[in-house]
Amino acid sequence: MVAALQKKSPSAAAETPASVAGAASSRIRIAAVSHGFDGPSGRLEVLENVDLDIAPGEFVALLGPSGCGKSTLLRLVAGLEQASKGSITQDGQPITQPDPSRIVVFQDPTLFPWRKVWDNVALGLQAQGILKQEKGRVDEALKRVGLQDFAHSWPHQLSGGMAQRVALARALVNNPRLLILDEPLGKLDSLTRLELQSELVSLWRKNGFSALLVTHDIEEALFLAQRVVIFSPRPARIIAEIKVDQPYPRHRGDPALAELRREALERLGLAQSW
Amino acid sequence: MNVRAALEQSPVREAPPELPGVAVLYPPEATAIPASASLQTQESIPAGTFRFYWFGLAAVAAWALLGAVTLILPDRPAGFNESWAYTREFGVLALVFSAFWATLTVLASFRQGPRFVRQIDGLFRYSVPWIIVSALIFALWEYLTAKQGVPDWAQLNPPFFAPPSALIDAYLSDYARLADSAYNSVKLLLEGILWGVAVGFITGVSIGWSKRANYWVHPILRLVGPLPPTALLPLAFFFFPSSHAASVFLIALATGFPVAILSWSGVASVNKAYYDVARTMGASEWFLIFRVAVPAALPQVFVGLFMGFGASFVVLIVAEMMGVKSGLGWYLTWAQGYAAYVNMYAALIIMTIIFSGLISLLFAMRDRVLIWQKGIVKW
Ligand SMILES: Nc1ncnc2c1ncn2[C@@H]1O[C@H](COP(=O)(O)OP(=O)(O)O)[C@@H](O)[C@H]1O
Ligand SMILES: [Mg+2]
Fold first, then answer.
1. Subunit contact B274:A159, Cβ cutoff 8 A
2. How many other C-beta atoms can be found within 10 angstroms of the C-beta atom of residue B194?
């Protein structure tokens, strides 16, 4: 009922707690979640009894072997799929479908090639039917990622780093309370990656959303997150959690981070490669 | 802003790769050379300089030759005709063209004047090879069909072959019937195409999107689609109240099938990640169809339109030949009945212009709609 009302009168949405300054971030509770896929060769168990809380405004990173089920977990949190077992809640409400308060940034920018940069960023507002009133938010989001001069470029004219920035702007324009990042910097060259890591930190600190990041880069996890959660090979179980108590902005050469890196490698069974 | 951000501000994607020092490696002169070299022929000559455009003279000469062949060489008697009509007029027309090319040649030699003059200049220079070749083709054609002194084995005899000057005769003597036929053909064709495109597109998107629509419509499409619509012609003429309605239906069928198949495959092959992105941002199903699936499918839809147009031309002409009592297809059979082959050529030329024009229009539309694609093929 509430949702229906919000759809019909977009202006009412502005008064819901969602976009009030004090509630810019969500608490996510993942409780005893298991998930699997039915395939031709039987059932494939992907997640096994995962428990994870994300406090409002917290930055959590997930690390784990490739193919263990991290992306699957993110899709469940986004509401793109339903967990087979267990519950996932956002501020106490069960997550049953996608919602603009939880936005995903994928490894590929997946910009719509038939839309110019500006229109790509405007996607969310247009889908929610509030673009006419809120045009300024698009320009502002582009400015936040430093691409205001490229508003009228086509996606194919952008470099990989710029395209991923546009994808970030397209996410941020919705003022998400949870930003879900699935290896967002995985395909970028190392220079661009370092650059965007710093930008992510400052965007997160400025906007105050909760963040859930999957990455295969341990340094990245330690540089960005307050907590690093380590998964076992498939089916994914949480095998360790590392608290990163360093203040922001962090320094990549910090000996404390190096020590945590050693610990993480050990947990992943890669201690000898250190 | 740091180095990387500054590099990324460059609008050229290829230029700033991973090496921040790359710009320093090449001195500015070195990068400037290829650009200036390619423009040298045009730009190094200052505006206002007179430099005679000799190649233009070849165009003048070629058309003068056409005029001379037409006017000076005597006609050979052709069937019932003592000589062909409009030979003089055709020769004079060739000379007028020759004079026109001479004017353009002088104009092109000056390299100055307002923008549109320089544009005409450029267009002329671009077209000169074709202007020359077409005159030579016309001259050979006129010579082999209408003139004395051609060896027997090389003669192209009436009534199957007529000189180009005879086309003027056909257009002037029968313009009313030709114009009426062209009008009726275009009307029938557009009516059929519009129905076909609309129904085909809606069908294709529906079966690409909805499993239920796919279940019911796909088998029908699979059975009926490959049937040549022309095979249904006799039945259609019987079932429909008028031959016009039957033809519209068959043209629509011919256009609609490829449009439906390619719209379907376009929608079905949309990157699923686009839907995930839109859904997390609160997109409704309506939004997913019309703002994600359809735009993403458009490149394929245009392939379907191209194929559908081609098929519709076939059906149009056959339908007009078989039952519709008007149109260019009908005109062809009519001309055949009177052994009026010149009129047949005249009708074929009009047909070419109409069909080629429609396809060009389609491609122009595609270039506008799909402007976001890189490396799009120009028609
Ligand atoms: N829709 C699906 N259907 C069947 N299997 C899937 C599906 N999505 C993911 N999987 C499988 O689940 C496992 C975990 O995938 P994923 O979550 O993408 O791993 P990662 O941790 O690398 O992100 C993989 O073995 C993958 O093949
Ligand atoms: Mg993954």
1. no
2. 14
AA letter at A187: K
Tens digits of per-residue pLDDT, A164-183?
999 999 999 999 999 999 99
Does residue B83 contact residue B77 with C-beta atoms inside 8 Å?
yes
Looking at the CA of A73, name the nearest ligand. 1
Q: How far is CA B301 from the centre of its chain?
A: 18
H/E run at residue A25: none
Cis amide prior to A249 (ω within 30 degrees): yes
What does the alpha-carbon distance between residue A4 and residue B78 come to, in Å, rounded to a whole number?
84
How far apart, in Å, are the Cα atoms of B350 and each of A20, A62, B327, B339, B341? 68, 69, 11, 19, 14
Q: Contact A25/A204 with Cβ under 8 angstroms? A: no
Q: Under an 8 Å CB criterion, which residues of A touch B?
A: 75, 78-80, 98-100, 102-104, 106, 108, 110, 112-116, 123-124, 126-128, 146, 149-150, 153-159, 161-162, 170, 174, 189, 191-192, 195
Ligand nearest to the CA of A235: 1
pLDDT for res B18: 38
Q: Is the CB of A50 under 6 A from ligand 1?
A: no
Q: Give the span between the Cα atoms of A231 and A181, in whole angstroms.
A: 17
Q: Do the Cβ atoms of B162 and B342 come closer than 8 Å?
A: yes
For ligand 1, atom 14, the nearest C-alpha belongs to A69
Would you state the structure tokens that stand for residue B173, as one six-digit string?
């003597």
Could you read off the pLDDT of B208-241 as tens digits, one per residue?
999 999 999 999 999 988 899 999 999 999 999 9
Cβ atoms of B146 and B168 closer than 8 Å: no
Nearest to B47, CA basis, from B111, B109, B105:
B111
Instruction: Identify the DSSP state of A44.
Output: E
- The Cα–Cα gap between B146 and B74 comes to 8
User: What is the Rg, in whole angstroms, of the alpha carbon atoms belonging to chain B?
Assistant: 29
Confidence of residue B86 (pLDDT cuts 50, 70, 90): confident
Fold of B175-373: MetI-like fold (1.10.3720)
Q: Do B8 and A161 touch (CB under 8 A)?
A: yes
Is any ligand 1 atom within 6 A of the Cβ of residue A42?
no
CATH 1.10.3720.10 in chain B is located at 175-373
pLDDT digits (tens, 9 = 90+) for A104-132: 999 999 999 999 999 999 999 999 999 99
CA of B58 to the centre of ligand 1 (A): 70
Model pTM score: 0.81
Q: What is the token pair recorded at B225?
A: 């689609």
Q: Which residues share a beta bridge with A181?
A: A105, A213
Tell how far CA A143 is from the center of its chain.
20
What ipTM did this prediction achieve? Answer: 0.86
- Atom of ligand 1 lying closest to residue A38 CA: 4
From the list B1, B280, B291, the residue facing A98 with the nearest CB is: B280
**Residue holding tokens 């039952």?**
B323
Cα distance between residue B160 and residue B145, in whole Å: 10
CA–centroid distance, B283 to ligand 1, in Å, is: 25
Report the pLDDT value the prediction gives residue B15, as an integer from 0 to 100. 38
The three-class DSSP label of residue A179 is strand
Residue A225's contacts (CB-CB under 8 Å, 6 or more residues apart) are A59, A60, A61, A211, A213, A244
